[in-house]
Each structure stands twice: as C-alpha cells, then as structure tokens.
TrEMBL record:
<dbReference type="InterPro" id="IPR001670">
    <property type="entry name" value="ADH_Fe/GldA"/>
</dbReference>
<dbReference type="InterPro" id="IPR039697">
    <property type="entry name" value="Alcohol_dehydrogenase_Fe"/>
</dbReference>
<feature type="domain" description="Alcohol dehydrogenase iron-type/glycerol dehydrogenase GldA">
    <location>
        <begin position="12"/>
        <end position="185"/>
    </location>
</feature>
<dbReference type="Pfam" id="PF00465">
    <property type="entry name" value="Fe-ADH"/>
</dbReference>
<dbReference type="Pfam" id="PF25137">
    <property type="entry name" value="ADH_Fe_C"/>
</dbReference>
<keyword id="KW-0560">Oxidoreductase</keyword>
<dbReference type="InterPro" id="IPR056798">
    <property type="entry name" value="ADH_Fe_C"/>
</dbReference>
<protein>
    <submittedName>
        <fullName>NAD-dependent methanol dehydrogenase</fullName>
        <ecNumber>1.1.1.244</ecNumber>
    </submittedName>
</protein>
<feature type="domain" description="Fe-containing alcohol dehydrogenase-like C-terminal">
    <location>
        <begin position="235"/>
        <end position="381"/>
    </location>
</feature>
<dbReference type="GO" id="GO:0050093">
    <property type="term" value="F:methanol dehydrogenase (NAD+) activity"/>
</dbReference>
<comment type="similarity">
    <text>Belongs to the iron-containing alcohol dehydrogenase family.</text>
</comment>
<dbReference type="GO" id="GO:0046872">
    <property type="term" value="F:metal ion binding"/>
</dbReference>
Amino acid sequence: MRTEDLIHFCPPGRLIIGAGSRAELPALVAHLGYRKGVFVTDRFFVTSTRWVDEYVKSASLLGIETIVFDGGEPDPTTTLCDSATQSVREALKGAAPDHVVALGGGSNIDLAKALCITLPSGRPVRDFVGGLTSADNPIPLIALPTTAGTGSEATPGAILLDPNNATKVAVMDNSLRPQIALIDPEFTFTCPPRVTADAGIDALTHAIESYLTLDSAQYDRNGHPDPGYSGRSSLTMLFAREAISLCARFLKRCYDHGDDVEARTGMCYASIYAALSYGSAGLNAMHGIAYAVAGLTHRSHGTTNAVVLPYAMEALSPYRPVEMVEIAQIFGICGENPDDTSRALCEFLRDLVADLGIPTNLRDLGIGEGSLDSLTRDGLTVTRLAKSFPVPDVEEAYSRIVRNAYHGDLGKFPRREANKLLDRI
Ligand SMILES: NC(=O)c1ccc[n+]([C@@H]2O[C@H](COP(=O)([O-])OP(=O)(O)OC[C@H]3O[C@@H](n4cnc5c(N)ncnc54)[C@H](O)[C@@H]3O)[C@@H](O)[C@H]2O)c1
C-alpha cells in the first residue's frame, strides 16, 4: 500500500487460466448469449492445429455461428486492418456480429481488437487512432493468446504499423479490453524458439518497464475520466514483481526446452501478470524507442524491445535505485553498492538478450549512425510514453539511450556470465 497512490485498475472482464481451458469456451460464449461471431486468426492455426476447427464445431452445436478470418499477419498494418474490415463485412452480408474471437499472438489479437471497432461501421482504422468517442461501441472481444507474451489480452490498445508513420500507432480505449481473456498454456507449446524468445523478453520488458515507470500520483491522465493507463501503483507493482520472478525462473528454460510444461506454464503466468501491471501502469521509453526501431528495421516487437531494455534501464537507474536493486535481487545479483548492482543488472540483462539469440546493439540490427537523431525524434513523438519516463530531462535521456544502444555501451563493468547467474536462481 502507498498512501499517495491513485489507482485506476482495468483488468479484462473475465480471466480464465488453465491447461485445456479452451474446451470450456463454447459453453461460456453460449451462456453469455452470443450467437454470431468472427474468429480472427492466421493460416498457421487453421492449417497446423485443430483449435480453430474444434472451436467452430463445438460453438455451432450450441447455436453459435462463426465466420473465420485467417488473414492475420505478424505486426498488422492499418492497411491490413482496412482490407480485413472489408472482407469480413462482405462475408457477414450485412449481419452484425455480437462477438469477436482472436486466436494467436499479439498480432492477431491486435488485429481483432481493431476489427471490433471498425466492423460495425466499415470506417478506416485511422479514424480511431487517438481515441474513441462514447458513441463508438466496440464489439466484445474474446482473446486466446498463443504466445507468452504481449499481454494484449489484458490491455486497452491495438498496436498497428502505419505505412505513413515512422512509428507504430495505437487505437486505444478501455472498451477495447477483452471481455474474456482465456489463457490455455497448451496454446503456446507449438511456439518455435524464436517466437518463444521474442515473446518472453517482451513479457519481461513489460514487467520491468512498468515496475520502474511514473507513479500513479504523478501520472498525467489528461483529464480523462477513464484513462487506459494511469501510472504504477502498489497493485501494479505486485503483479510486476511476480512477473519478473517468473521470467527469471522460466524464460531461458522455456527457450532452451520448449517441451518443458512447467516452464511454458510459468511464462504464461509471467505474461499475464506483466500485462496486469503494465496494462494499467503503462510503459515508457523502452517501448517508445522500440516502436521507432521497429519502424526503421521491421524487426519483431520482442527483438526491438530487447535491444533497448538494458540501455533504458541504465538511463533510469539513478532515479530508481531501490527498485533496480530489488530487480537485481530477484535475478540473484548483488553488487557492493546500489550503483554496482544496477550496472551488473543491466549487464546481466544484455547477456540474457544475447543468450536468447537477439542482437544487443542497434548496429547489429542494421541501423546506421546517421539515423540516430531521427530515431530519437521518432521515439519522442510517442508522447504518452515519453512523458511517463521518470527522469528530469526526457529528450536527453532518449538521446543517451539511443547512442548507448547503438554502441552497445553500458559503462565500465565486465561482461557477466549470464548462465552462471541463471543457474543460481
Ligand atoms: N496491444 C498490446 O497491448 C500489445 C502489447 C505488446 C505487443 N503487441 C503487438 O504484438 C505483436 C507481437 O506479438 P507476438 O510476439 O505474440 O508475435 P506474433 O503474434 O507477431 O506472432 C509471430 C509469429 O508466431 C506465430 N505464432 C504465434 N503463436 C504461435 C504458436 N503457438 N505456435 C506456432 N507459431 C505461433 C504467428 O503465427 C506468427 O507467424 C506486435 O505487433 C506488437 O506490436 C501488442
């Protein structure tokens, strides 16, 4: 508890977690009175798993009609969303769906979230960037995440690439939070190591970034009575701490041994707990700069977060010394003083990123030194993230993070032996 907190906590309507829990979904959908749904996924799930077919058949037996859209793609664009809107509306032949189901990673869930707001009117998704009005009435969403992960099943936003914009754009409102988030760890068993690593480091970034972000008492809600994000609080930090601890135990194990059921399940909990933290606390520079890096390189969301994470933490460490030591302790790291410990933590995380097969500097992502200034500017344009970075000079901090991330520079400490540290946990 912190007396100064101003908590505005927005979880999904229902949170269901459990191995095999997907089998319970059709009955719940019927119980809620839904009758006509749109199922948003991608080709992988239709061709390589039985999950889509099983759901559609079971739902049909309960009187629920479902149209399947399987054109989801990694990192959906506004263009994909608009073409999906048109093709689903044609398939619906004027009928109004009463729910949307999303099966997939953050990409399919975000596309489905955006469709919840575009399908009723057929308007382009760009109309909704910057906020919904009270007249907009999104279709209820049921999210079935297959990565562990993005946590999109618990957040108010759909993140889309905009071909006309240097960074990602967001369609955001609490009404877009899923009515049901169903986390069946078995969905993640088929994730290849690359997807496991990218999604897992995303979850860890969410947990750490929201643990260190601006306090709820200082957060600028812009006068909004129902803010999507409202700063960290004792409640969000509780989830963040547990998520970091689960990532410390299971992220690398999950990447090394994809058939380790306990590790897979642990990362599913890490992902949703991280989302219950950042989904109300919000994020800051790590994602702000990562969006700009993604705009430039088109590398995956997890990879662009991972490359920025240690350098953003380094810039933040003078202003969050206690929390840096707490996170270090979770990873089994202790230095001679808080400064040492913070630096050792940043080194350790950079080594963990490398061990997950992800580049640890911007040069290795193919970014040239000449792009650094524009990258810094593009990161700063996502103002909701920049203004939540709790440092006195945000512009200077962004510039430092980008330059350090380019050079791979974390200061004077020697490379740590990440595996030895992980073995101690
Ligand atoms: N809305 C939010 O709050 C939020 C938060 C974080 C990230 N995101 C977005 O999420 C996206 C990244 O999502 P992601 O990391 O989950 O990856 P993804 O959804 O982009 O999926 C990557 C690839 O992995 C495949 N895949 C997914 N699950 C699989 C499984 N179980 N088995 C085999 N293959 C599988 C997909 O088919 C796809 O080809 C980005 O676009 C990012 O912007 C959104």
